[in-house]
Design brief:
Chains A, B: This is Phosphonate utilization transcriptional regulator PhnR. Chains A, B: It comes from Photobacterium rosenbergii. The structure is a homodimer. In chain A, the strands form three sheets. A six-stranded antiparallel β-sheet of chain A has the order 4-5-6-9-8-7. The first copy, chain A, has a two-stranded antiparallel sheet with strand order 1-2. Chain A is about 25% helix and about 35% strand. The first copy, chain A, has seven helices and ten strands. Chain A folds into two domains: about 60 residues, Orthogonal Bundle (Arc Repressor Mutant, subunit A); about 160 residues, Chorismate lyase (3-Layer(aba) Sandwich). At the A-B interface, helix 1, helix 3, strand 7 and strand 10 of A face helix 1, helix 3, strand 7 and strand 10 of B. Strand 7 of chain A pairs antiparallel with strand 10 of chain B. Chain A binds a DNA duplex (19 and 19 nucleotides) through helix 3.
Chain lengths: ~230, ~230
DNA sequence: AAGTGGTCTAGACCACTTA
DNA sequence: AAGTGGTCTAGACCACTTG
């Protein structure tokens, strides 16, 4: 089990600080040579470290050492940049697309509206210290947010909801699972198709307990850990 | 990108119900033949489906179609068998080991006790419909649970805490991240070293807000999704 | 232009599971 | 005993990134 030994060797170098967060690893061919093995086997080790969240890959660019993950509390409403700031990180959001369109099957079922109902769909890409880490897609019920597309998306959606429509997030139902990145989502995150990822789905309620929107968040899985405190019911 | 096409082909067969949950896939060599490719490429497709949680692997036994994941709410105290039952699944727990020992570094830091303090360590393996899905390790502060090892571990720990010591779980701090299975943990789960996994770490408090124990749960990542509702603070 | 990562081939041997 | 999965080798070509 050569690939386990190689994995441990690289792992130790990371833990020892010889390979710092954000650093690029040497070329695969060079690494393979220095471990006296082939690229195939080396890549097995690297994939393992990717699964563990110690390394990440940028498509065609190489392998990098993962920074400390962002601690993400789904029960917090604080917007993304603020959450990052509290943890000493720099965050930035880019608008990919915002439009009115028929709800996808998944979105319709979450929002409990008939399939193909019109909803707003807002796609955004979020960066942590200039690394793209999550693609967020919101499906928003137009009923509560007339003329949403005319608004500016420079501030957070939470802020927009509150200041323009008096809607306040008050409850969220979330779901976390693991998946893999495909197609455009992968491209936005500079990931190779099939990279492991974390999917956070949220269904959000306003202060009157109405469902107002839902969102799908595809995270580079090494970039976050979900962390929260819960009072136990019963 | 042959491996993506193969992945989609298999994926469709699963969605169409041609490959039912729990079914074993044909041998890798046969699959490779039928897709006119090599085992290496085929295995790339299979690994992708594993990352997505549609397939899982049992070490040296082959590839299987994943059943529906268990919905796991960390804010619930209900014990594991009951949680499973509510979702129409059959659960079972096996005791691997229970002993008094010096706290590991990770456990000591979570429990906020000096390194190498004596704590109880209880390792258990949990099955869902006779498939091993999670290895749970509890680190328990002896202070609140004198003579714990003399008790029977046939019922749940929650029940034991309540009935024998009057200790009631009232708050939990949890953390979810992705990782990979190694060593004994992998073996218990019948997994190949390096299989993707989900790690749930919990720090538990009693009714007086004392930390009483912590636990590390290594899940077959296709076997659960974390699902919860949260009232938003502020 | 050179080098790199992404993808793929066509084998091989071994230890283990299964019939 | 046969077949299977786990692991590994030694190449190859292409498209893309980088200097």
């Amino acid at each position: 089990m050569q690939y386990l030994k190689i994995m441990e060797a690289i792992s130790e170098q990371i833990d020892a600080g010889l390979l710092a967060a954000g650093n690029k690893l040497p070329a695969e061919r060079k690494l393979a040579d220095s471990f006296n093995t082939t690229r195939v086997t080396l890549r097995e080790s690297l994939a393992l470290l990717e699964a563990e969240g110690k390394l990440y890959r940028e498509d065609r660019r190489g392998w990098f050492v993962s920074p400390t993950p962002l601690s993400y509390d789904p029960t917090y409403t604080t917007n993304f940049p603020q959450m990052a700031k509290e943890q000493g990180r720099l965050a930035r959001t880019e608008l990919i697309d915002a439009k009115l369109m028929p709800a996808s099957r998944r979105a319709a079922s979450l929002l409990k509206v008939p399939p193909l109902s019109e909803v707003y769909r807002v796609d955004r890409l979020r960066f942590l210290d200039e690394r793209p880490v999550v693609v967020v897609t919101n499906f928003i019920l137009p009923k509560y947010f007339p003329n949403l597309l005319e608004k500016s998306f420079t501030s957070s959606l939470t802020t927009l909801y509150r200041e323009e429509y008096g809607v306040i997030y008050s409850k969220t139902r979330y779901r976390v699972s693991t998946t893999s990145l495909l197609g455009e989502t992968a491209q936005h995150l500079r990931a190779t198709a099939g990279s492991p990822a974390m999917l956070v789905e949220r269904l959000n309620y306003d202060q009157h307990d109405n469902v107002i929107d839902c969102d799908l968040e595809y995270w580079r899985h090494d970039a976050i850990c979900i962390e929260s405190v819960a009072e136990l019911s019963k």
